[in-house]
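Let's practice the habit of predicting before peeking. Look at the sequence and jot down your guess about where helices and strands might fall. Then scroll down.
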Amino acid sequence: MSNLPLPADYVRCLAHTPRKNEWCPRRETCARQITIRHDRLDHPLYVKERLCVSNEFESFVSLEDIEPETCCTYPKCNCPFDAPADKNWCARGLKKGGA
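Done guessing? Here is the structure:
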């Protein structure tokens, strides 16, 4: 799951109704829900209780559909590590390409 967390502009989903009595059956395979476990809290995130309001799962984002990152975007990334002075180094092993 190196493609998580999702970008900050993706709305997160808590996967339950306001009363917490109805849980989304796809919560363990939805990137909008799983990404919450990987988010860093150093920038604003938008979270809603349950995005999919019908059995159509209109807001579902499959973990498999998320494109993994292919190049390092430090310092814009969500990497939990600070990069050392070496500009060619990435804590996640990605090639440099985006700062």
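How did you do? The chain is about 5% helix and 10% strand.
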